[in-house]
Amino acid sequence: MAERPEIRVVPLRLACCAVEIDAAQAAGLLIPEGEGHGAPVAAVVVVAGTVTEPMAAVVEAAAGRQDAPTSVLAFGACASTGGPYWDAPSVVNGADSRVTVAEYVPGCPPRPDDLVRALLEVVAT
């Protein structure tokens, strides 16, 4: 059996979509950070929730400080487009306005297995 590449998932739990990340982890679909068996071949920053102006710097910093090749995944409607809060003055209309996003996962909220599928697609490219 071929070994899977180890992916470091860096979850930015900004709002309610974070519950789906926890559900994926609880179901055994994600390995908690620090419990892997080797150096990661890729890091994926998962932006889960509404990005506000004050949090935009956190998103940018998380995407820039990884020691492995890093991609960003926008998880859910709020991370992708601002969601129902798009017209609020403090909301950034999608993480892609601040960082390059490799994959978008639609939904409010998306399913945990959609997160796993998107993570595998990001590292396959």
Reconstruct the topology from this structure.
Layout: E1 7-13, H1 18-26, E2 42-48, H2 53-64, E3 70-75, H3 77-81, E4 103-105, H4 112-124
Parallel strand pairs: 1-2, 2-3, 3-4
Helix pairs in contact: 1-4
Molecular shape: globular
From the coordinates shown, what is the CATH architecture?
3-Layer(aba) Sandwich
User: Largest sheet, if any?
Assistant: 4 strands, parallel
Report the top-level CATH class: Alpha Beta
Textual characterization of the structure:
37% of the residues are buried. 31% of the residues lie in helices and 18% in strands. It has one domain (7-124): Rossmann fold. Helix 1 (18-26) packs across helix 4. It is globular, with a radius of gyration of 14 Å. Strand 3 (70-75), helix 3 and strand 4 form a beta-alpha-beta unit. The protein is built from four helices and four strands, in the order E-H-E-H-E-H-E-H. The mean pLDDT is 87. The chain has 125 residues and is an alpha/beta fold. Strands 1-2-3-4 form a four-stranded parallel beta sheet, with helices on both faces.
